Amino acid sequence: MARVDIRRLDLGYFVRSAAEAGTPHARVEPVLAYLVRGPEGLLLFDTGMGEGDPGAEARYRPRRRGLVEALAAEGARPEDVDVVVNCHLHFDHCGGNPLLAGRPVLVQRKELATARAGDYTIDALVDFPGVRYEELDGEAEVWPGVRVIPTPGHTDGHQSLVVTGRRGTVVLAGQAYDVASQYASDEMARAAGCPDVPVPEWLERLAAFGPRRVLFAHDRSVWEGDAAARG
């Protein structure tokens, strides 16, 4: 099994209203991307918050850390990135894509179609000079040990990334869950076979990989499996 290194990139934060978050008060959420370094090259999972929509600026009050700066902190440049995977195409996940023109961007076909239909995200982040999409219909192997898994819910075309290396498997879950505790609760219900708790069908598929850790786009907390807890 190859050695794979995963680094979290902090790309800023935004404020989600209480109504949208489903909480008694507004919630400040980080915007996190992940740089995957393996024998085949560099993969970037999500690219941060885009600009150009006054409505989004007023609604979410984003504070950005530039993708170039975040990559530089990990010894990389945009031109070093070989492939991009977006969990979905909302502005806070694909904002840096135009900086990576010419690189293949892996996205579910239904997600791209929805984004192109309008009233979904910032249009200039979807189609820009040099964009190069590779549309997927379901699961796909990106590289040996790196696999895209559809995880619909937040959007119909949402996808996560499963990365397996020498130290085990890590799931980059994007916004399949807003926070790690939600994932933990559903995973416990799945494992217990509790019929009173509905969980996503794809949760069983992720569990089949036996992940050591699950990482999220809007929560710095990390879910750890039993093997990870034992070190």
General description of the model:
The chain is of the alpha/beta class. Helices cover 23% and strands 30% of the residues. The protein contains 8 helices and 13 strands. The strands form 2 sheets. A 7-stranded mixed beta sheet has the order 4-1-2-3-5-6-7. The longest helix is centred in the last third of the chain and has 13 residues. The two termini are 19 Å apart. The mean pLDDT is 96.
Topology record:
Layout: E1 5-16, H1 18-21, E2 27-38, E3 41-45, H2 54-60, E4 63-64, H3 67-73, E5 83-85, H4 91-94, E6 104-108, H5 109-116, E7 132-136, E8 140-143, E9 146-150, E10 159-165, E11 168-172, H6 180-192, H7 202-207, E12 213-215, E13 223-224, H8 226-229
Largest sheet: 7 strands, mixed
CA(first)-CA(last) distance: 19 Å
> What value does the average pLDDT take?
96
Structural class: alpha/beta
What proportion of the residues form beta strands (DSSP E)?
A: 25-35%
